[in-house]
Amino acid sequence: MRDRDAQPIGGIARRLAGILTARGIDPAVQLTDPVEPIPALQAAQARIPARYQAAVADHPAVTAWVRAIAEAGRPGPEGAPGIAQGRSLLIVGTTGTGKTHQAYGAIRSLLLAGVRLRWKATTAADLYAELRPRPGHDGERELMDLARCPLLIIDDLGAAKNSEWTEEITMRLINRRYNEMLPTLITTNLGMADLRQHIGDRVASRLTEMSDKVILDGPDRRRALAAERRRIAAA
């Protein structure tokens, strides 16, 4: 640029302010860089149930588990850690205490920490329904895929109707993950004695050894929220 074409900084600023104002933009507003989205978290949101897409893992034992899993990850592309071997987490509590919320919150926390994460989630009832033998479906392949998945959520273990077949499926799945030391997030409404009766001694024994146990207590949060909505509506 030639000297005679140069303009005072103040003149440029005034012209820029005029352009912004003409476009409906307040030049006095301080602009900030947008927060970069996390692609893995964005992809996960489509797989997380709508009710839990903003879930936060805030229980101290759950956040400690998240840190341990993240720190144990093997470095991968661009240095991002990936899920390696690690402890599992057994979240126990009565209905409505936030077990599923904490489980999905843990997934979101791992993704926010930059962990490369291949994961699957299922309820125990859906697991058995999906694997039940039927024409044209390879249940054995599906079982092996779940058994090898780096991180698996099994929600409501012990809630589905029990049989010799479901006990065998649970044993094969848990035993494979136990042997490979793959982290598994399990939620259940049952205490350990009732869970042992429902899934069998062999599975319960492995869960006891492979898992850190978290007990959630307190009132049913769903009923408390419903009561609060009724109170507000009546006010």
TrEMBL record:
Entry keywords, A to Z: ATP-binding, Nucleotide-binding
InterPro entries: AAA+_ATPase (IPR003593), IstB_ATP-bd (IPR002611), P-loop_NTPase (IPR027417)
Phylogenetic placement of the source organism: Bacteria, Bacillati, Actinomycetota, Actinomycetes, Kitasatosporales
SUPFAM superfamilies given in the database record: P-loop containing nucleoside triphosphate hydrolases (SSF52540)
UniProt entry tagged with the keyword Nucleotide-binding: yes
Superkingdom as given in the UniProt entry: Bacteria
PANTHER family assigned: ATP-BINDING PROTEIN RV3427C IN INSERTION SEQUENCE-RELATED, CHROMOSOMAL REPLICATION INITIATOR PROTEIN DNAA
Domain AAA+ ATPase: 85-221
GO biological-process terms attached to the record: DNA replication
Entries under Gene3D superfamilies matching the protein: P-loop containing nucleotide triphosphate hydrolases
Gene Ontology MF: a single term: ATP binding
Protein's name according to its UniProt entry: ATP-binding protein
Claim: Translocase is one of the keywords in the record: no
